[in-house]
Amino acid sequence: LPRHNHHPCSHCTPPSQSTHSPNNNPSSAHLNSSIVFSSTDSLFFCDFLSTFFFIIHSLTWTSSHNSMKLSGKLHIPNYIKSKASFGQQDAEEKWLKIKDAIEHIYDENASSLSYQVLYTCGYQIVLHKHGELLYSGVERTLKQYIQGLRAIIMQHHDEVFLKKLLEQWEKHRTAVSMVRDILMYLDRTYVKTHQKMSVYTLGITLFGKEVFTQDTLTRIQRLLMGIIHKDRNGEDIADGFLLKDIIQMMLQISKTEVYEPHFEQEYLKRSREFFVAEAQEYFENSTATDYLKRVKERLRSERERASRCMDPSTRIKIENLIKKCMIEEYQFLIIEKPGSGCRVMLENWKLDELALVYEFLGLVPSALKPCLELVNSYTREKGFAVIKDEGKDAKPMELIEDLIMLREASDELLDRSFSHYQPGSQQRVCDKDFTLGIRDTWNEIVNEHERFPEYLSLYIDSKLKKGKQQINENEFDQLFNQVIALFRHLRDKDIFERYYKTHLAKRLLHDKSQSDEAEKSFISKLKNEFGFHFTTKLEGMFADMRISQETNDRYKTFMQRNSSEEESQLNAAPPIDLSVQVLTTGFWPVTQMVSVSVPPHIADTVNAFEKFYLDAHSGRRLTWQYNMGSADVRMNGFTKSYELSVSSFQMLILMLFNENSELTYQQVLDGTKIPAKDIKRNLLSLTVKTTAHDRVLNRPKGVKTISSNTVFSTNDKFKSKKVKVKIAPVVIKQDAQQVAQTQEKVDEERKWQLDAAIVRIMKMRRVLAHRDLILEVTKQMSSRFMPSPDSIKKRIESLIERDYMGRVIEGEHAYEYIA
Fold it and tell me: Could you give the 3-state DSSP secondary structure of residue 128?
């Protein structure tokens, strides 16, 4: 054996370190050496030793008390018996050796034992069918020793009781581990066959039964509760690891019979009492924020203790207990606490404190619901205070700005107070319920005011056109995001589109747009947000402006090339410089077809352009929209000439005064054929005096109402600080009748849109139930407006009358498409 080339393991003493026999014979050194076993490494030795005994009948060893001499035959030692000669008496003798060894182990005198001999004894007892003798003997011996341990442990005072208990436990565990290594073969065969506890488990179980009696457990429980109570109150603990070690001992002995009934139950009971008392005392004497901070610290400390000392299931239970006693019971009180509750936090905009509320109320299912309702109510209250303020109707820009500020505040509230980190990510995401609640609340706010689409369009118009309210180009992106954030909540987006088209048309046609790039950027954002269908007409307006510029360039080149030719009156140079914007019908908000009386020299210029354009584009027709044009008119007869920038209607009015110094209202009306509502507005603007210039036309003093006999005359004393004078038409605020007219036109457009959607759906589906058709149409149209089921039903009936579709069977709620 010593010459066998094997690698010593951790449980075998290498030959160079072996303890030799008295004559220091190397041949016997390996067999008689003391070997220290470990619980994890002894299996190799056992396997090796048992294999050695089964192949030994082909060899003979000579052995003596002092030495072993190799003599050609190997003599089997006396402690190895053949199966035939091993009886009950031999088994008892072997057991006595093992019993004596167990006593040496418990006396901490194991260094004098030969583990090879002891293992062989156990092996032979089991091999010769005396395993019950060995197992029951081990059980009796361990039980007797443990009973003696209990008496030793219980005599100690409380100050050292747990420490001494732990010392005896560690000593017992070490001893049982060594006994297990000796009786490894017993565990591997007899224990498995007879379904008994392993030697180590037996030793641990016996310790629990004999030591952990009711009085012992009561004492342990009382002392452990005292340690935990001191720790909770911030008192110093002498041995910080004692609690952990004692609890782990109880877990190892038995979780269900020792740990849970004699520690965990009492621990949870006393914890509940402690948490209830602490919560009540601290909530009454602190603010809601300070209370939550105390709960946060309590939760942290209890988690840390439970994770360090106790079973994982206990940590979950203690966390749930804190949530129940300190959070769930106070969820409404935290929100409503006078002077420091959630409403006060919202009023004072304490977002970090609200985040603390969200963090802890979120630990309890449905505890955030009262907070969610409060946030929605607060947002609705603030929003309605703005949207329902009657004074804001006179200041629509201020109304929109206030709503933008409130909307940004809602976003900040979500980001900072009601958001959390995604699992496994450093990115914060807003809480789904709070996000949906804020969205629904803002849907109510925005759609509460019927003129909100108009006001929103006016707001963006004031920022994009040249003037006092225009903004810097680097602020456009922020502006657009703010407007779209409100626009998302708007239900009737098609009404906004109509107003926006009108305002955009004025900016483009009158060259009032501050930046074409900004205009296109906003349309691009609308397109990305709501689809290309929403912006098709807006993009078409920009395309018309580009094509018109190219057409004007070609027209001017044509006129310059033909200005010297006098073959025809058409090719004669026009008396005025004309710039025409050719607009595509359907893209632009053309509200009326106005036929006016135009002076001959202007009519000649108009006819020249019309012939040029129609020669290049046969099949098209031009309709002149004088109500949408503008003109620059030079005004003479003063110390210096002035250039007036006026609308086309104002130009026609001023041209009449070339021949007359004064005219009545009726004469102006007859001479221009301008509609009465437009001519009054344009006439009044010419009679207005500003800080920059005098009035262009005079009217009788004290006359507030224009009649057919009201006389207008030229102002011979006209003066202006600037040579170029801008005369803007008087802006008449849209009255209820005009709003109703706009809504009527929108409703008419919606009819055609609903018809088109219904026909598209039926053409694709062929046959469809009434309910499914309503849902499909609503889904398709929701990006522009929210149609009512009644309006859809009316359009279905109209399409049936016009034979676009029909009912499948009379009386049933289903339709079929008619090709």
Answer: coil
Token code pair at residue 588:
């632009």
**Conformational region of residue 13, where left means phi above 0, alpha means psi within -120 to 50, and beta covers everything else:** beta
- pLDDT value, residue 422: 81
Question: Over the stretch 472-481, which tens digit does the pLDDT of each residue have?
Answer: 778 888 999 9
pLDDT for 9: 37
Round to whole Å and give the CA distance between 81 and 79: 6
- Angle ∠(252,255,259) on CA atoms, nearest 5: 95
Q: By C-alpha distance, which of 370, 374, 397, 554 is closest to 460? A: 397
Three-state DSSP at 614 gives helix
- Give the dihedral sign, CA 640/641/645/646: positive
Coil, helix or strand for 814? strand
Q: CB-side exposure of 643: number of CA atoms within 13 Å?
A: 4
DSSP percent split of the chain into helix, strand, coil, nearest 5 = 65, 5, 30
Tell me the C-alpha distance between 652 and 658, whole Å: 11
pLDDT at 787: 87
788, two tokens: 């009512």
Contact, 773 vs 762, CB < 8 A? Answer: yes
User: Of 655, 725, 663, 651, whose CA–CA distance to 688 is shortest?
Assistant: 725
Q: CB burial class (10 A; 0-12, 13-18, 19+) of residue 18? A: buried
Are residues 15 and 2 in contact, defined by beta-carbon separation less than 8 angstroms? yes
pLDDT at 564: 55
Strand pairing category for 711-714 and 724-726 = unpaired
CA pair distance 505, 191, nearest whole angstrom: 96
Distance CA 632, CA 627 (A): 15
Interatomic CA distance for residues 175 and 203, integer angstroms = 9
Distance of CA 557 to the CA centre of its chain: 60
Measured CA to CA in angstroms, residue 66 lies from 45, 112, 683 at distances of 24, 16, 139
The stretches in the chain having pLDDT less than 50 are 1-75, 566-574
C-alpha–C-alpha distance, residues 756 and 798, integer Å: 12
Encoded tokens for 797? 């009936």
Which phi and psi (to 5°) does residue 693 adopt? -155, 165
CA distance 598 to 651: 10
Give the chain's end-to-end CA distance (angstroms, integer). 102
Instruction: Name the token pair of 462.
Output: 């004031």
CA 449 to chain centre: 30
| β 428-430/697-698 pair status | unpaired
Q: Quick check: 269 and 261 in contact, CB under 8 A? A: no
Angle subtended at Cα 546 by Cα 544 and Cα 552, rounded to the nearest 5 degrees: 95
Euclidean distance between CA atoms 515 and 513, whole angstroms: 6
Q: Which two tokens stand for residue 637?
A: 């007869």
Helices and strands counted in the chain (H then E): 32, 11
What CA–CA distances, in Å, run from 732 to 347, 428, 630? 40, 49, 18
Query: pTM for the full model?
Result: 0.70
Cβ atoms < 10 Å from Cβ of 694: 14
- Between strands 697-698 and 662-664, the pairing is unpaired
Q: What is the Cα–Cα distance from 610 to 481, expressed in whole angstroms?
A: 43
Q: Determine how many CB atoms are found less than 10 A away from the CB of residue 511.
A: 10
Task: Report the C-alpha gap between 477 and 314 in whole angstroms.
Answer: 54
- Rounded Cα gap, residues 566 and 558, in angstroms: 14
- Rounded distance, CA 506 to CA 551, Å? 20
